[in-house]
Amino acid sequence: MSAKKKPEWLRKKMPDKKSLDKMQAMVKDLSLHTVCQEANCPNIGECFENRTATFMIMGDVCTRGCRFCAVGKGEAPVLDPDEPRHVAEAVSELNLKHAVITSVTRDDLPDGGAAHFAETIRAVRRMNPSTSIEVLIPDLQGSEAALDIVLEAKPEILNHNIETVPSLYGNVRPGADYQRSIDLLKRVKEKNPAILSKTGIMVGLGESAEEMHGVMDTLVEIKCDILTIGQYLQPSSEHLPVEEFVTPEQFEVYKKMGIQKGIPFVESGPFIRSSYNAARAMEVLNNH
After folding, report:
1. Is the Cβ–Cβ distance between 195 and 188 less than 8 Å?
2. Which domains does the chain have, with CATH numbers?
3. How many CA atoms lie within 13 A of 164 on its CB side?
4. DSSP letter at 95?
5. Which of 125, 197, 214 is nearest to 160 (CA)?
6. CB 42 within 8 A of CB 233
7. How many C-beta atoms surround the C-beta of residue 127 within 10 A?
8. What's the pTM value of the predicted model, to 2 decimals?
9. Where do runs of H (alpha helix) occur along 136-208?
10. Helix, strand, or coil here: 245?
11. Residues of the chain falling short of pLDDT 70
């Protein structure tokens, strides 16, 4: 089956090469990875021009085999004890107001990498006390103790992406579990209501509007604060094909639907990614 042709609304202007080269050089110098590069994010040029990046800790090899993701799979590396400090230095050098930190899934670690996340949050906080911190974490295999370790470091936002609707999990996220992800998000608000909970979903994988309704109802029930909805794009021929290019109009329908149902902040559009314009949600919610 041949790949679907991208519609006009999914074309991005080329990034400014100078900004891109400068950011990439700094990231390389500090032995860091950004999810922007590893996951082939379509917003890389725009974000790098604005001197923002989502740092990916714990290496660039994932222990899961999700069929939508461009991040490398295989045997994960030993954790770098200097990495939390390097992330803090990068945040300082970039003078970020809002830092986003994510990771590959590390099922090989007893705590899923929770302690490394916590140490990175603390390192960024020590060096950049006025910077707000958002972490985008894996499901930690459902461990409540591991989640507590991350929450105790008090990030402003805790994000965990559900990625798709329940019926597609077996095909899109083998090794993950929809209810496990929902339970993680629910616990964030139960354990510390001051921390904003956030999740993201990709569309264009074969989900129905009714299923999207159902997911949003669940997110309202668990008091999720922020939802991002973006178009799935096939990273390579080895990955899942795009079933549908969702129109900008339908993204707007989803946004209105989420807000009407009671999700406080919804960002929805073809190019929306989990970390895109991440600081805006916090600014809006804090001013309410």
Report:
1. yes
2. 12-286 (3.20.20.70)
3. 24
4. T
5. 197
6. yes
7. 16
8. 0.87
9. 144-152, 169-172, 178-191
10. coil
11. 1-4, 12-24, 26-53, 61-74, 276
